[in-house]
Design brief:
By secondary structure, this protein is α/β, with parallel strands linked by helices. The protein is 25% helix and 26% strand.
């Protein structure tokens, strides 16, 4: 069984402000669905075993997930003071070459999950955009669709070879990926994302890019993005 790890531990401070808040994955998108539904349903339809990396209001998320067969929840007790790299590390026993990593605040076209190949190297999905915002995770790649630079701290403008990371990736090489995650955590780097491991592997192995264009894609971080995602689905 292929695994898909949905990282949904955060407390949505940028969306709601400081303090204990609702997990973004349970935000309602329609009258009968929340963000999490729009991730679990297409992944299960594609044969993925779902594991949720939870934190903020774990019990609430776990209770909601009970409606889906075989969905597991793994709690990150340090979610308030760390980032998703620590949530991922809690799920390390479920990481294989074919594992997908999915941010739990995404609203995407379900065909996004079909972008990957069986190549034994990390793969990430990006989206063509006309402009980056302050939160965009930029990915620059070469003619072979291999990443040369990536991160929120680079200043490249949108172009055919510079696109926005969607928050969905395929591990590809579990051994190297987990070794890099462990190195980061041992060095005290716990306030970052799993993508930092991919970034550190650039040059050691190809990090492949699959570029989408014109597809449904929202990374829900602000009230405006939340409203835009609801309007797109409506």
């Amino acid at each position: 069984m292929k695994n898909a790890l949905i990282l949904c531990a955060g407390s949505a401070r940028r969306l709601f402000g400081e303090g204990e808040n609702s997990p973004k994955c349970l935000l309602p998108l329609t009258s009968n669905s929340v963000i999490l539904d729009h991730l679990i349903r297409p992944l299960q339809a594609r044969g993925y075993n779902i594991i949720l990396g939870t934190g903020c209001q774990h019990d609430l998320v776990a209770a909601y997930a009970e409606q889906y067969p075989d969905v597991r929840c793994v709690y990150n007790p340090d979610y308030k003071t760390t980032n998703s790299i620590v949530t991922l590390w809690q799920l390390r026993d479920f990481v294989t070459d074919s594992t997908l990593l999915v941010n739990g605040d995404l609203v995407v076209d379900e065909s996004t999950f079909d972008a990957f190949t069986d190549e034994a190297t990390p793969q990430i999905v990006t989206q063509k955009v006309t402009a980056f915002d302050a939160d965009s995770y930029r990915v620059v790649f070469d003619k072979n669709q291999s990443v040369v630079r990536m991160g929120k701290d680079i200043d490249d403008l949108p172009s055919p070879n510079c696109t926005a990371f969607t928050g969905i990736s395929r591990v590809g090489n579990a051994k190297c990926f987990l070794e890099e995650i462990e190195k980061l955590l041992e060095s005290g780097t716990d306030n970052t994302w799993p993508t930092t491991a991919y970034r550190n592997l650039i040059g050691e192995m190809p990090i492949r890019v699959h570029v989408l264009s014109g597809m449904l894609f929202f990374d829900v971080d602000t009230p405006q993005e939340f409203e835009a995602a609801k309007a797109a689905l409506a």
